[in-house]
Amino acid sequence: MLYFINDYSEGATPEILDKLRESNLTKQAGYGSDEFCILAKEKIKEAIKTDAEIFFVSGGTQANKIVIGSILKNYEGVIAADTGHISVHEAGAIENTGHKVFGLRSKDGKLAADDIKKFCRDFYVDVNHEHMVYPGMVYISQPTEYGTLYSKKEIEEIKSVCNEYNIPLFIDGARLAYAIGSSECDIGLEDIAKLCDVFYIGGTKCGALIGEAIVFTNKELSKHFFTNMKLFGAVLAKGRLLGIQFDTLFSNDLYKKLGKKGVDTAIKIKKALIEKGYELYIDSPTNQQFIVVDDATRERLSKDIGFGFMETLQNGKHVIRFCTSWATENEDVERLIAVL
Amino acid sequence: MLYFINDYSEGATPEILDKLRESNLTKQAGYGSDEFCILAKEKIKEAIKTDAEIFFVSGGTQANKIVIGSILKNYEGVIAADTGHISVHEAGAIENTGHKVFGLRSKDGKLAADDIKKFCRDFYVDVNHEHMVYPGMVYISQPTEYGTLYSKKEIEEIKSVCNEYNIPLFIDGARLAYAIGSSECDIGLEDIAKLCDVFYIGGTKCGALIGEAIVFTNKELSKHFFTNMKLFGAVLAKGRLLGIQFDTLFSNDLYKKLGKKGVDTAIKIKKALIEKGYELYIDSPTNQQFIVVDDATRERLSKDIGFGFMETLQNGKHVIRFCTSWATENEDVERLIAVL
Amino acid sequence: MLYFINDYSEGATPEILDKLRESNLTKQAGYGSDEFCILAKEKIKEAIKTDAEIFFVSGGTQANKIVIGSILKNYEGVIAADTGHISVHEAGAIENTGHKVFGLRSKDGKLAADDIKKFCRDFYVDVNHEHMVYPGMVYISQPTEYGTLYSKKEIEEIKSVCNEYNIPLFIDGARLAYAIGSSECDIGLEDIAKLCDVFYIGGTKCGALIGEAIVFTNKELSKHFFTNMKLFGAVLAKGRLLGIQFDTLFSNDLYKKLGKKGVDTAIKIKKALIEKGYELYIDSPTNQQFIVVDDATRERLSKDIGFGFMETLQNGKHVIRFCTSWATENEDVERLIAVL
Amino acid sequence: MLYFINDYSEGATPEILDKLRESNLTKQAGYGSDEFCILAKEKIKEAIKTDAEIFFVSGGTQANKIVIGSILKNYEGVIAADTGHISVHEAGAIENTGHKVFGLRSKDGKLAADDIKKFCRDFYVDVNHEHMVYPGMVYISQPTEYGTLYSKKEIEEIKSVCNEYNIPLFIDGARLAYAIGSSECDIGLEDIAKLCDVFYIGGTKCGALIGEAIVFTNKELSKHFFTNMKLFGAVLAKGRLLGIQFDTLFSNDLYKKLGKKGVDTAIKIKKALIEKGYELYIDSPTNQQFIVVDDATRERLSKDIGFGFMETLQNGKHVIRFCTSWATENEDVERLIAVL
């Protein structure tokens, strides 16, 4: 069975396992004060070419929950795409911190600056807005949950709306490697860092065993963030596990290389899909490729291929996903194309 | 510098690193549905000789937060020792879930069944108790934060009070290996499982990189626990990381062996301390040894030894801790004894 | 200036003030244990012709917050119309308890049973539903925020969906007097009580100074509700203030009479609006009447009449509201009609 | 039966009922924007002789919950006497907002500045304090739950510690009338206002039907407090009910007069108690008088007198409370004394 179900079905890039073994008995301070965390932070700061406060946590929902839950005030909510991860697939993790998620209509998984602007403007002109949840943050994902990318211009426009309403911009980079690894991406780590207040660099789906690096370029927002992490249950006694991984990922440009590998295999699949006449559900330049198939095709493909099932459309057809990653073998891609 | 500061300053027992490498490219389902998690659960159920619902999370505070936060009702609080981890060192993680921690006076880190009983009885006889937080759970640590152990009889008595007031008993086993690895421990995994409603088996401090196994022997309490884990940000996409570790720890009796190694080295240190006339702060049969020293001694020892500083007593003397673990080398113990 | 802005711009029906004065120095037990609360509960149970657990609180948002916050489990959310009060105008009071509000598309302020059914069915067929918020309750308002009414059949259908998915139905009756006071309402208090699990009878907008009576006909859901009220800050030391009011409102059929008066004046206005060629925004059979006006009309009317502004439509016209209540004078209605 | 059980067993001072009747049909804006609220705020500002942001809510637990819940940050807790209302009798209302209550040992219901200082100093010298709840506010009650009073000097000292640690001081004035009505009170409303950041003026126990006036003299802390009130369910549609009452209480020095009446009757009782040889439990200069009695006395007194039962001491004797209020009749006091 060919396996294109998701981007977290293997362990870690071998360099990480090597480093874990090599460092295994080195005695280190706990809770993220170890040498590896310190080193990893330095390397990330080099990569983003700006100063920042950096924290490592275990997973994406956790990163979203703590960042949003520690920044928003009681009376504020977070603006997100209605298809955003926090809107749908985090089991109410944000609401559990006491905050509303405003799920704005999105297109191809993306929020438009104009829609955010309209939302905020409408809020403040409403005479009853003191009886309503205040927009307190904007959350976007790069790449989005549908594999699409925001352009630099689009993020600049969103940031400009944020500035107008004095609310921070938070970018979920669970699959950030597959954004910066895409040839269609015109916004690199440096720009991301400059344009938002806080973002996270996904490790789990991009070569690590677990781990996300939360980067506050707006350092004001990171006050007492360690204690926030602790009270949300996110501090690891052996923080070294995260430090070692990000130290490795940000050495020798590995993070970007892994991302590029995931995207390259996906684009190969995309080209084959187009050539063979499959209907793309969305035009994705990253590691997730979505197509629309009928019952028969879905069944046929499922005999040899593991893929993700997303939803059944009103016309009865199905949206399915082929997902590659840093670990995808070219050989498997060839076999997939042969089956298609 | 000799390093006896804590029990989480190294990586993992080598068997775990081997298994990680060996399984690295095996494709597995996400979120804890992988083969390793399934296998690990089976092995734990064998070890505790009872049926149970088992879940793996990353750390101890997280385990405590989710278990307590998902079981208690709005109007309930949790009874704990005033020295318990949830009372002091979790930055309000429990209160953040909306619940009060009743910090009852403890002795040697332990709660007495009689004190719990008095607390509950006083609560229910108070005519105003509907205006107060209800006792909704009892939380104890085995071994305690001071290295001491509850006997089987003591836990039976506590459970009996719990039954009388119809509240569950939760045992924090962050260092459980060092309890069952101690020759003075008369209550093994089987008994623990029988006597409480839910407990967790600590991995992080007992040989794993990260990870705790939450075991519900009262399965009624575990309904929808996976979704609770998700909304608290505790579900790992690569759940295999936890499954692989617990699978390893519960193969070939490794968990108990690692615990025994940690205790044996500690007891060697304890004997030396007594012989050399040091004042024990507490009589601990497990991997943490506490002594009382004056300024001069503290300073002298700190030249060669890394140890934990706990508190300064009213008489000006200090409580310090030597902590061993599964990774402690006998050679280092000899050198420590020489310095002492 | 004629005042048709809302239904809470006066004090209380005079019978309540009389009763407050008459009882003023009678000494009573606190926190809702007074004779008046007991009496009021008996009278409400007579009116709904069924046994129930009844609690009095100060306002509607408070009632919604405590009922929802005390019934839902961590991983559950509440289904509501996207125009429902809890979806829009409670400043995140529900999310503040940790729960998501699912704002389903509504028509004329109403939820359709079929839409609720589709939502629940889609949830359970989703393979990822354990990563999502569970539907845990249905919330509807009778009358709705747009003055419309659910028929008995519609509520039966909704309840049937609730039963299918084993979730309770909660009815917000902030303006319930204006439902049962309407000639177009085919579902009285008795039926409401039978068809839902919990509802509240609005006092604040229906003749009282403040106060809502929360009625649990599904008594299982009301366990420890007093302590839930306390911890949400809703218990009044002088609970008598609420007991006296509901005792009065449920004597001599006063509640229904006050409702009828509010509706009758509104219907008089509605007829005049239609006759004079105004465009109704919605066909409301209760005390709120909504019309669509252009700029000029809005300005002209605002010279003599206080009315509510709801929103500006895409065509530039405005939705405004004339609201009557138990306190509306026929004379003012005549004058309003003259101005129209 | 003579009734000295508590200070909330009657309705309101008659001036309030008069004003309610007189204003009953006056049409007013909702949610606290009415003329009476505006007027009441002006009068309170005159009384405290300082500028402030003022908000009215329904009850004491509600006031405490919203003030504390809206000021504290995630990682902060509130320091209170272990006998403080928020520590014991609010059913976890504070913890429900996600915050820990640090119940410091108290004497006669009072916190000492030195103990607060020691607590804060110990916190910051602890190397692990980032793993602990930060002290974020000090809460005291004037008068205390045991009827005792802080002197001006004592509150100055407490405020000085607050300033040192940069945390606000919040004073619960549920019975404030009985502090300023006592001849032994050397700190009036003006001083209170100057010395703390926020306090509330109790209405419910001091002559009103319901209501507390929250006064922020540190206006920075009151930002968006209205929306905080809303999301905690505390905004009344008919805010006039609170405005009218505080307008009345702060006209003609009525608030202080009512307080004085409550204290004068209590002191009369206290003198009689001393003369007749009863053992005072505490030396209270306000409207609550506590004595220690044996079984026989308790039973004898309970035949004719309603009093509060507080607790049974270790020696088997009981602490009981005689409580007076603005409504206590001199005649009843004479009869009480006769029975004593």
Task: Outline the secondary-structure elements.
4 copies of one chain form a homotetramer.
Chain A: E1 2-3, H1 14-23, H2 35-48, E2 53-57, H3 60-71, E3 76-81, H4 85-88, E4 101-104, H5 113-125, E5 134-141, H6 152-165, E6 169-173, H7 176-180, H8 189-195, E7 198-202, E8 212-216, H9 225-231, H10 240-249, H11 254-275, E9 279-280, E10 288-293, H12 295-302, E11 305-306, E12 308-312, E13 318-323, H13 330-339
Parallel strand pairs in A: 1-11, 3-4, 3-5, 5-6, 6-7
Antiparallel strand pairs in A: 2-8, 7-8, 9-10, 10-13, 12-13
Looking at this protein, list some descriptive labels.
homotetramer; about 350 residues; alpha/beta; Aspartate Aminotransferase, domain 1; Aspartate Aminotransferase, domain 2; 2 domains; seven-stranded mixed β-sheet; four-stranded antiparallel β-sheet; 13 strands; about 40% helix; globular
Descriptive account of the structure:
Four copies of one chain form a homotetramer. With 340 residues, chain A is α/β, with parallel strands linked by helices. Chain A folds into two domains: 2-8 and 255-339, Aspartate Aminotransferase, domain 1 (Alpha-Beta Complex); 14-252, Aspartate Aminotransferase, domain 2 (3-Layer(aba) Sandwich). The first copy, chain A, is built from 13 helices and 13 strands. Chain A has helices spanning 14-23, 35-48, 60-71, 85-88, 113-125, 152-165, 176-180, 189-195, 225-231, 240-249, 254-275, 295-302, 330-339, and strands at residues 2-3, 53-57, 76-81, 101-104, 134-141, 169-173, 198-202, 212-216, 279-280, 288-293, 305-306, 308-312, 318-323. In chain A, the strands form three sheets. In chain A, strands 2-8-7-6-5-3-4 form a seven-stranded mixed sheet, with helices on both faces. Chain A has a four-stranded antiparallel sheet with strand order 9-10-13-12. In chain A, α1 (14-23) crosses α10 (240-249), α2 (35-48) packs parallel to α10 (240-249) and α11 packs parallel to α13 (330-339). Chain A starts with a strand and ends with a helix. Chains C and D meet through α1, α3 and α9 of C and α1, α3 and α9 of D.
